[in-house]
Amino acid sequence: MAFTAIHPDAGRIDASRIDLGCGLDWMQIYRVRPRIQLGCPECGFGVHAKVSPRGLRYFAHDPGRPPECQMSNESIEHHLLKLELATAIRAANWHAELEVRAENGLWRADVMAISTDGERRMAWEAQLSPITNFDLLSRTARYADSDIDVCWVSPRDAVPWLGVVPAIGVAEPADGLGWTVADGLARFDNRNGAWFVVKDTALETFVRWVLAGKVNTHFILDRYRRIHLGGKRQARRNEIWTTDKSVQLERAHNVMRERQTAWKAKKDREEQEAERRRLAVEEVERAEAERLRKIQEEIHQAEAAEAHRLWKIEWDTKQQVLEAERLAKEEQERQAEAQRQERDRLEREAADGWWAEVSDAQWQELVAGIDNHCLKHLGGRAAVHRTPTEPKYAFGIPVYVGGWLRGIARPNPGSLYRLGEGLLAFVRSKREAEMLAAHGNITPERIVCFNLPDHEQVQLF
Ligand SMILES: [Zn+2]
To answer: What is residue 377's DSSP assignment?
Structure first.
């Protein structure tokens, strides 16, 4: 079906207009005899005027139409939408022409809106069948080349190309009160900083706003491209129909956001700088603390080294003193030993002389005297044996009584200091007793003298 046809005399006629767009009446072409030869503007095949049961006027191809004719393939729904658009355009006091073809064939508009002065044209495309974004963009560009605006209109839900080109989604409410715009028209909500789709605007109102320039297409700024469709639904859109006011709100909001971003970036830079300074100060403080610690450590090391040096000196000195003392002691002992040996030698020499004075006979006399004395005073016989004299017996001869050492016979006078405590000293004569006493180191009571003659009795023949 189609709304336009080529009249043999009037040329292009439009069934959506009362005068068919050329001063003719519908009744002059509808069911007239003889039949007027009308042609399809698309394929040139014969068409005839028809009226639908609901009173819609249109043209239908004669039987045997070419199957490739786009006009004949368009659905009734498509045609009704075109009619709605044409009606809305005319209500806005613009001319509306249906199924208009470019002279160069680059485009064919479903409905072409033309301003009364003929200066401005805008195509309204009822797009019901699936179409690629590429096709849409190239067809939109072709209109732009001819200085024609365009709005793509879809009665389908959620077509993927909304927002790709200037486009709206439309709906025919169940109440039959006329078509409304369901998608594609949006307002910027300053409080939320986002675009919201405006629903339920009458299609006629929307068309009037667009033709009057109150609503225009707008390329959404990057950060606002996720727009709210109502409820929780969102969609990404590049292009939207909206008012200048919303565009200004978006721009102002964007400036505010950019200012915020710049402010935050500045804040971040300041924080980074502060952090950098803090770290630098920390580094300086750490280095200073480390320097002081090293100095302290060096001081401690020096102190410890000095303490060790002093201790070493003290120790060495002490060792030297001890060594000197040891050597001195050794020397003392060596000298004492030499003195002792010398004294022993002298005493032994003296003792040898002392004993040379006594003959064997005189010795026997003394032994007899000792034996007698011991029997009388010490309660036992004396055991006296002439043995080599020894220093420990003061160079005399030990006298045992009953196994006990009780005295010394003839101790050397010069060795009396060696005589054991309590021991008696037995001597022959008063002279010997006096010699012992003269040396001291013994009390007279301990000297036992037998008053024997000093000189051997000369044997008289
Ligand atoms: Zn045709």
So the answer is: I
> What is the per-residue pLDDT across 366-401, written as a single tens digit (0 to 9) for each?
999 999 999 998 888 888 888 888 888 999 999 999
In a domain, 88, yes or no: yes
What values do phi and psi take at 181, rounded to 5?
Answer: -90, 120
Q: For residue 67, report the distance from its CA to the centre of ligand 1, in Å.
A: 9
- Quote the pLDDT of residue 456: 62
Same domain as 150, residue 125: yes
Structure token digits, residue 381: 């016989």
The answer to whether residue 425 is domain-embedded is yes
CA of 75 to the centre of ligand 1 (A): 13
Structure tokens at 94: 């613009």
Domain boundary among 280, 303, 320: 280
* CA separation for the pair 281, 284 (Å, rounded): 5
Report, as ranges of residue numbers, the positions in the chain whose pLDDT lies below 70. Answer: 173, 176, 456-461
Cα-to-centroid distance, 22 and ligand 1 (Å): 21
* The pLDDT value given to residue 452: 83
Domain count, the chain: 3
Q: What is the pLDDT of residue 385?
A: 87
| Protein residues placing their CB within 5 Å of the ion ligand 1 | 40, 42-43, 45, 69, 71
Which residue, of 280, 295, 316, is where some domain finishes? Answer: 280
123 and 228 in a common domain: yes
